[in-house]
Structures are given as structure tokens and as C-alpha cells.
Amino acid sequence: MSQDPQSQVLGHLYASALRGAGAAVRLEAVADPVGGLDAGELTVVPGFTGRFLVMFARDSTARSDRAVYWALAGALPEGLAVGDYAMTAEDKPALAVTKATATAWGGTDLPALVRHCAGLTVGGVAGVRVPKTVGRCTLPKLREFGDDAALFAALQARQITAAWTSTADPDVPEGTVLLTDARPALVRAENVVPLYRRNELTEAQLLAINQVAGVLDTEALIDMRRKVADGADPQAVADAFLDEHPLGR
């Protein structure tokens, strides 16, 4: 588990679910959680479908929620398995524009951006990987900013046309328009999902981690990330969420 708020939220959320099913759980902060899982040092690693897929099948062209999930399931090495994914909880790359831009384009989805591909200027936070193309639109070289605050300030100042963020980023300012994806999807899905080692969880424990998918949504993920980023204890945040959204009910 990494130390960023999102990893903390997911780690403690799945840990709480496992404890509720009778497991003795210890959270480990490791640099390479998937490597630790593959090596047998970890039992469960929560994360996102698309990011996991890139680790195991870099050349996969899957984009939709279901396609990415099943591509991931088919790409895992022997000994690893994937639990149920949260259909309503995601953190996929998203492009943000101002309300004025969305109005001028006559749309609030990615196809509107594709139709206005010529002349785009696109920004993102330095070090964060983002798509280089959206549909048939090849994006210009990314303008990099030090953090979300600088990125969205540039967007509001019209220094850039669009800003790369993600659907569960708690720092997206009010009034900013996140362009929704199309069908078929133009950006690879990133739904919350756990990977686990086969034959190491009881039936009740496996059921518990799968039931997380039924109660978690993107708004809750944003809310918990924000609380942890503001200094709240991640275990208390996860426990409070599960108290309000009991598993298996």
C-alpha cells in the first residue's frame, strides 16, 4: 500500500471488509504492491482495473469497464485472481474544461473535444501519465504544472484549453466541467478492484472483498480521499463508510 490518500482509503477499506469476515489483517506499505502480491508477500492488493491491466498486458486495447476487467482477468499469472470490480467507483483520466469552453463547443463530453481537436492546448500535473490520444484526436505536447492548483489556475486563466485530471480527484474546482466519456469508450476504464492470491482467502473473506464493489461509488471515493488528505485517520474514515454502508445488505 502506498502512502497517498487514495491508496490509504482503498487499503483500509478492504482491510475493514476482511476484518469483518474474521481475518487478521496487517497493512503493509510497500513500493511495489503487485510485485509483493506475485511474490506471496501480500494477500490482497486493491487498485484500479486499467492500471493493473497495463502491468500485465501493456498492449491491450480494451477500453470499456467490462472489456478492461475481463482482459485483466485473462492476463493475470497463475496464482493470482481478480475480485469483483465496482461498477460505480472509478478514477479514470478525465479532461476538464471551463463552462465557457463547454458552452462554445456545444457539448460536455469527449466527442465535443474531438470535434475541436485543432488548436487545443492541454495541461497536466508533471509526472502523471495521461493518454496521448482521445479517439481520432492526437493531443498536442502536454504543458506540465507542479500541482492541481497551478493546473486549474491556468485553465481558468485560459492559458490552456483543457486540463487532465481524473474522475475521483477531490481537487477539481467547482464550476469546472469534466468531459464525460463516450460509447464506445475513448479512455480506458479505471474501476476499483482487488487482486488477491488464490487459495489464501476463506469463502467468507472472498465474499467480503467482493461486496465492497456493491457499496462503493465515485462520490464516496472522492469524499474519503478528501478527508484523508485533510488529515483524517484513514482507518476511521473507512470504518465510518462501512458503518453507513454495511456489506451484504
Question: Can you give keywords for this protein?
Answer:
single chain, 10 helices, five-stranded mixed sheet, D-Maltodextrin-Binding Protein, domain 2, 10 strands, 15% strand, 2 domains, 249 residues, alpha+beta, globular
The mean pLDDT is: 96
CATH architecture of the largest domain: 3-Layer(aba) Sandwich
In total, how many beta strands?
10
Helix content: 25-40%
Organism: Mycolicibacter heraklionensis
Domain ABC-type glycine betaine transport system substrate-binding: 5-115, 148-244
Protein name: ABC-type glycine betaine transport system substrate-binding domain-containing protein
GO molecular function: transmembrane transporter activity
Report on the structure:
The chain is of the alpha+beta class and 249 residues long. It has two domains: 5-89 and 189-244, D-Maltodextrin-Binding Protein, domain 2 (3-Layer(aba) Sandwich); 93-178, 3-Layer(aba) Sandwich (D-Maltodextrin-Binding Protein, domain 2). It contains ten helices and ten strands. The strands form three sheets. It has a five-stranded mixed β-sheet. One of its GO terms (cellular component) is ATP-binding cassette (ABC) transporter complex.
